[in-house]
Design the sequence.
């Protein structure tokens, strides 16, 4: 997982994430052993930002099937 990949995904979601925010997401992912970009972004956003899950319904519908 790279900063560029994180930035591309957050851009796709319509989120404004600067370099510092992307670095925080990557750091948090590494700390928790998260290797999937979407999981890393949503873990961070759910914990710190509370961003609506409707920004990526496909991801969340798949998560619901896994749980």
Sequence:
């Amino acid at each position: 997982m790279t900063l560029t990949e994180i930035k591309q995904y957050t851009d796709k979601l319509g989120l404004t994430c600067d370099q510092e925010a992307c670095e925080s997401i990557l750091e948090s992912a590494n700390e928790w052993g998260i290797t999937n970009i979407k999981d890393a972004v949503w873990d961070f956003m759910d914990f710190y930002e509370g961003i609506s899950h409707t920004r990526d319904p496909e991801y969340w519908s798949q998560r619901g099937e896994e749980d």
